[in-house]
């Protein structure tokens, strides 16, 4: 069968032969054996409902074995035989170009060059899934191939509930992932209900089909690292020859060495999974691969002497580096961590002194001991960081729940008041006041033609638009504008494309709208093919996350989730091609609500009307909330937007003189 025929077929008519698991695959960790006997039977019953009854006997045995071996039922037998990658949009069998665009984005998320654990349909973060199993993938692709522009596909945590009549102006797909009754939103609840096959963890851009490889976070990481150095360096001093130490080279965290190179420092990223580190080295995302501590010491000193801009992957535990650099008196200028501590007990963070394979055995067979070892390592990790910060190291939490889990482990990370952490998150110190409060966030696009020349053309268009906007930009955002112009000028030479022909750029509502309009006009003129717009959920409006995206909200509302939910609802009727809302993300299940969107630009007037309406709301929803929280940068930004958009009328806070509060209680 051809590729198109296989897509249209969905679940095969004949039971396919059992597949062997590829020996060289980067496998997801085995999940907890958390189900009772009755629940395991329910999990099998749930899985079998996708298939004809006469297959049940054979598949029941097979699925039971998968549940035993992996802690999940992935249905490997049904993985399609064709290669999965982002094809050109016209190669997909579809009645709707919007549906074809979504198929392209789904396949990009599952491309082995992009995905962290592609066999398990996991894109990044250790558990950020596109679907729970291969049957869901087959059915979703089939539904998209049949969909008209007056139907909407509704996905419940990967499961396609079906096509429902709607309208041309409605989203083509509505995605929810992990939405739980609040009292059932603890980590073990995810383990249980995901094993049952009734929910999944979509991370942020995995389950919303908007992941574009490590590039997706490179720009934000670059901004963060550049400004981290700006906070500690004297005027005129550069990051050259100075050290940025971090950990993690998996999905999103793989962006760190590339960002360090762009920022112009020496980056050291520790990674316990040799396959992950080697993959990033082979892809050119990290310059040097080292698995010996003594060799690392020599190489770092050499880089400092020669004032190199270089990134080094150390295959091992980052705690070893913090401790050894203290002994060797190697000064770390900037430090952080980007391991997947949102899932600390299932492979997101590994204990020191135990091999990678042995640690994975403990996850499966001795989870209690594994947890003890992880918490012991977190305490040791924090102690080592504290020694360096006393010497002047600037350490920030990178929103991966490092400080949260370290505090839960009893590590010395709390401020004197016993309530706050002693270190700020990067959103509190950098991205919040500098970017999000002004409306700057990770706008991204994918050239649906798959043609690199289209990406070059969009880079040029975006740069020209930003340069024109900057001519009249207020002083408050001149640095942000210049950083982004510099970024887009250098984007191609930094070789960040993995999978689809995609780009990311931090822009505010004005920038996003004008860039998107220019793209749509170029499409109409036949200069480029269709373009898919999107963004990371890690943005101005999309995410309510008290330990990351909204950690600089100080009016007591940072634990509320109204903004993310309004964001998705508001985008859906203003023209988004698809929308998504997730429980969980980079900081953990039950710790965050986040929403995303995708929009196809096809060169039509209707597309231009949709993008202007939706982008204005998508950004300013968050600025309005940040303004109401009394964030001064956001108050400035929303007042400026109201001047530019007369139909926008937002409630502005009346500021209180603190002196009148002193003697009230």
Automatic annotation (TrEMBL):
Pathway participation: Amino-acid degradation; L-histidine degradation into L-glutamate; N-formimidoyl-L-glutamate from L-histidine: step 2/3
UniProt-annotated binding residues for NAD(+): 125-126, 203, 271, 398, 586
EC number annotated for this UniProt entry: 4.2.1.49
Domain Urocanase C-terminal: from-to ranges: 436-639
GO terms, biological process: L-histidine catabolic process
Recorded name of the encoding gene: hutU
Record's GO cellular component terms: cytoplasm
Pfam families for the chain: Urocanase (PF01175), Urocanase_C (PF17392), Urocanase_N (PF17391)
Ranges where the Urocanase N-terminal domain occurs: 84-210
Protein name: Urocanate hydratase
Record-linked PROSITE patterns: UROCANASE
Function: Catalyzes the conversion of urocanate to 4-imidazolone-5-propionate.
Superkingdom assignment: Bacteria
One GO MF term attached to the UniProt entry: urocanate hydratase activity
InterPro entries: Urocanase, Urocanase-like, Urocanase_C, Urocanase_central_sf, Urocanase_CS, Urocanase_N, Urocanase_Rossmann-like, Urocanase_sf
Keyword vocabulary terms for this entry: Cytoplasm, Histidine metabolism, Lyase, NAD
Binding note for cofactor: Binds 1 NAD(+) per subunit.
Segments forming domain Urocanase Rossmann-like: 213-430
The reaction(s) this protein catalyses: 4-imidazolone-5-propanoate = trans-urocanate + H2O
Names of required cofactors: NAD(+)
Species for this entry: Polaribacter pacificus
Family, similarity comment: Belongs to the urocanase family.
Location(s) in or outside the cell: Cytoplasm
